[in-house]
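Q: A reviewer asked whether we had any structural model of the full assembly, not just the individual parts. We don't, so I'm hoping you can provide one. Inputs are below.
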Amino acid sequence: MALNTREIKGRLRSIKNTQKITHTMELVAAAKMRRAVTGAINSRTYSTLAWDLVQRLRQAVQFNDDDPRQFWFDQSTSITKQPHTTVLVFTSNRGLCGAFNNNVIKQTVKFLKTVPTEAVTIVCVGKKGAGTLSTLGYTVHQAYAKADSARNDESIQELAEYVYEEFTQQRTHRVVVAYTDYQSSISQTAVIRQLYPLTSQNTISQAVDNADAAKPKITPPTKHAVYKYEPSAEAVLEYIVPRIAEVQLYQALLESNASEHSARMLAMKSATDAAGDMSDELVLAFNRARQAAITKEIAEISAGSAALS
Amino acid sequence: MSAKRLQLKLVSPVKTLFEEDVDGVTLPTTVGQITVLPHHMFLVSTLVPGELLVQNNGQTFPVAVAGGVIEVYNNHLVVLADSAEHVSDIDVQAAEQAAERLAKQLADEAKLDLTTYNALQKNLEFERIRAELGKKWRKI
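A: Here is a predicted structure for the entire assembly that you could use as a starting point for your response.
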């Protein structure tokens, strides 16, 4: 009996320790989530303004038929006989974040079933995605480490340049991004959005809610305004298009990070709650076992003294 | 009636640095340094890493920029900087260290592919500008 109480005590202690860890992880995740959300909101001003500018520039530039740059925007001409697609998958580096990774993978697999396998390149950002997708039998062509707390868009530069090269050389005709869209701290959805060719619909920059705060308050110039381009409209366009893609990827990363941390926060909260319930039960069990041991001892003593007298 | 002022919006992907009316802005563009004052003609241009000066009420606010795109229209100036920092926020020592590290990376790996090389080169240039500007404006 004495052994039983000690056993329960040991379990109780280990549960309480685990509870402390999960509670700390919850707080850390909450802080990281807030930082990622702020970053996403801050970068939205840039992408909105850049996008406005590109729309205007586009009308000023006329590309030749053989110029690969025309594919930046044009949806119809870029679809050749066998369009090649690149899929970028944003997942987390670590687990313990509920269904976060599974949701992204599920969306990705659903998308991959709609395109022929040989015409697809899969690029993973974050350790978990590469692992899970290759277990599922998909070939992961490239894997990048994910910056868990991205402070600026440098962390995504390499990926952005790789994608830009692939697309400009027409080795791939469409680039889509699978990531988790952060709507609020309790609701995130895994989505697939198109990166190249650039579209005005359903882009990453539109994803986050409460965008009103970041919307530029300036009035756009009139349609017929005549601009002077230095050095040339093409050069400006060439400069800004990869930048837009980079910023969109950066936003996808931040959204994904925010979602990951809030998923982890939720998972850790329920783990903490479960640990609390468990330890409550164990305290009751412990008290009962202790009382049983005492009762038994008293019974033994009184039985012994009864036998003596 | 007061003279027209220039509405400046200076943003980088990380944050918005300026969003206010100013007297004028001096920018390092690809074709040379220009100053944009109110009533400037409509213009779109690209920036090179360098020093951006915002003039407001007789005061000068220096900003280090790492390239970008600018657009001028109707007394609006939109600066889309790849990366930008108020000179007063610059940590000179950190910038110097970063520049040193990047220079070493560039020198060590001769086999770097072109895109990585260009990216590193650009980052290095910005770090050098940061360090230089940080020193320059601290003395005053």
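A: Points you may want to mention in the reply: Helices of chain B lie at 92-108, 114-139. Strands of chain B lie at 6-11, 16-22, 24-29, 32-36, 43-56, 59-73, 76-81, 84-86.
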